[in-house]
Write a structure and sequence with these properties.
The chain has helices at 18-29, 41-53, 68-82, 105-132, 136-141, 167-187, 205-218, 222-231, 241-252, and strands spanning 9-13, 33-38, 58-62, 87-90, 149-154, 192-199, 263-266. By secondary structure, the protein is of the alpha/beta class. The protein has a single domain, classed as Rossmann fold (3-Layer(aba) Sandwich). Strands 3-2-1-4-5-6-7 form a 7-stranded parallel sheet, sandwiched between helices. The relative contact order is 0.15.
Length: 273
């Protein structure tokens, strides 16, 4: 069976653990050339060793996505290292769970800088690089017959509606949905597909952090709260990184060429809009 991403250069932000790591492993199986970025360099080193052992072409980059200048530098280096950029998947982000009345300005700024500002300027830098690869006659026509890039942002079902205990996080993830739609409209003339994925519960280090924050803020039993949430998912189980990677693969493959501006709930049926 042909590999769906054979030869494609895929830039994955937040690749060191959790969903990003799962996507890196799946994309490697599908033949992608991997540019992996994260602020956790030690975990990236462990991942690169695993991927190279399997024969994958991979390079890693330290990235604090809250700093747009740093993101631009990473994109520029990827172009130098690989000579092209076809796919961008952004899983970088932080979670926040706290009483609405207790949220501080510092807490707000951190979440918004990483999740919202980081996403917006990462998409800008990547799209600029993708557009540079498009033939001049296609750019002049203002309409492309084939896709010249795939961008997938990770949002959350918390971005679908407000959360009393996630003021900053829910706001930032709602913004990611809006950023995805704006980017899809802006880059439609170049046939660069921009979509998002909204997970519910995925058992990753971020979910563990979410439970820890809830326990600290509200004194709830973290495991009991997690189990109760999962019980309200129609499919009665948490998502896996493999579920997220499969959805990302679809949105980054040629199978999704006529899909743009959409946010796909990969949440076991928790949200249905």
């Amino acid at each position: 069976m042909d590999k769906q991403l054979k030869g494609k250069v895929a830039f994955i932000a937040g690749a060191a653990s959790g969903i990003g790591k799962g996507i890196a492993l799946r994309f490697a199986q599908e033949g992608a050339r991997l540019a992996l970025a994260d602020i956790q360099e030690n975990l990236l080193k462990e991942l690169i060793a695993q991927l190279k052992q399997n024969g994958s072409e991979v390079r890693t980059y330290r990235l604090d996505i809250s700093k747009p200048r740093e993101t631009q530098q990473v994109v520029d280096q990827i172009l130098k290292d690989f000579g092209a950029l076809h796919i961008f998947v952004n899983t970088a982000g932080v979670v926040q769970s706290n009483n609405f009345l207790d949220v501080t300005e510092e807490e707000w700024d951190r979440v918004i800088d990483i999740n919202q500002k980081g996403t917006a300027f990462a998409v800008q830098a990547v799209a600029r690089a993708m557009i540079q690869q498009i033939p001049e006659d296609v750019k002049r026509a203002g309409r492309a017959e084939k896709s010249y890039g795939k961008i997938v942002n990770f949002t959350s079902i918390s971005g679908r509606r407000g959360r009393a205990y996630q003021l900053a996080y829910a706001a930032s993830k709602a913004a990611v949905i809006s950023i995805t739609q704006s980017a899809a409209l802006a880059f439609a003339p170049y046939n660069i597909n921009v979509n998002a994925i909204a997970p519910s519960v995925v058992l990753t280090p971020m979910w563990d952090e979410n439970n820890r924050l809830k326990q600290k803020a509200f004194g709830v039993d973290a495991q009991k709260a997690s189990d109760e949430f999962i019980s309200r998912i129609p499919l009665k189980r948490p998502g896996t990184v493999e579920d997220m990677a499969a959805a990302a693969l679809f949105l980054c493959s040629s199978e999704s060429d006529y899909i743009t501006g959409q946010t796909l709930n990969v949440d076991g049926g928790f949200e249905m809009n």
